[in-house]
Amino acid sequence: MMTTEKNFLESTAGPSSHPANLASRHAISCIAPARVNLLGEHTDYTGGLVLPMAIPFATHATISPRTDGLYHFTSSLFPEALTLDRSDRSPARRNWTDYPVGVLRQLQQRGIVPPGFDLHLTGNVPFGAGVSSSASVEVATAMALLALANVELSLEDIAVLARRAENEYVHSPCGIMDQFVITAAKAGHALLLDTRALTYEHLPMNKGNLAQTQIVVCNSMVKHSVATGEYGIRRRESEEGQAVLVKKFGVRDLGDTTLAQLEAAQSEMSPAAFRRCRHIISDNARVREARLAMFAGDPIAFGKLMLAGHASERDDFECSCAEVDFLVETATALPGCFGARLTGGGFGGCTVNLVARTHSEAFASALKVAYKQRFNIAAETYVCDAVDGAYIRNTHLHSTSSMRDRV
Ligand code: GLA
Question: Has residue 21 got a pLDDT over 90?
Answer without folding.
Answer: no
